[in-house]
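May I ask you to comment on the folded chain given beneath this request?
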Amino acid sequence: MRKTILLVVATLLGFSNLMISQDTPTNDFSKWQFRLRGIVVAPDESADIEAIGGDVSISTAAVPEFDITYFFDENWSAELILATTKHDVEAVGTDAGDIDLGSVWLLPPTLTGQYHFTGGNFVPYLGAGVNLTLFYGVDEGPVADDVEYDTAVGFALQGGFDFMLNDKWFLNFDVKKLFLNTTATVDATTALGATVDADVDIDPWIFGFGVGLKL
């Protein structure tokens, strides 16, 4: 009986040691990766415009994008994306008709936490995080005297995959959804005799494709 108990204990200890060794993360992975992508930023816009009503139309933009990813282990990482886009803006269907509000540049650094599904050359991942959007380079267009946009903080959801070409180089496809809201203040004193505030949901989809390097 004692031999049986000792055998069971030894077996359980051996099994436990095996599980621990399998679950213990190793450092045999690339901690840094860098991507250069071309992205399409497609706003899913809507607005609540005071006084004159109507909605907003914001143009789609295509630009290059650079991002940096740091891996805490083989599965978990944090990614920072860097890009800037220029968009044409128009108030549509207002009591004063369609109003050209010129253009604005957006700088939206976005930080996401990601989980990567490992196990081959095809590496899908999911992510979520936060976004800070700065508005600059505003051209108010031919009607407004001035247009101002409030800095915005929003949330981001992400999905995509890397396809490994070798140990270091890979292709990437990525899609993000940003939940982004700002207040736009349009000074149209000359044309309309008023300053108009608008609560604007930009909420863009961001589609990216590019190449990456693991280090």
Q: What stands out?
A: Residues 1-26 have pLDDT under 50 and may be disordered. Residues 2-23 form the longest helix (22 residues).
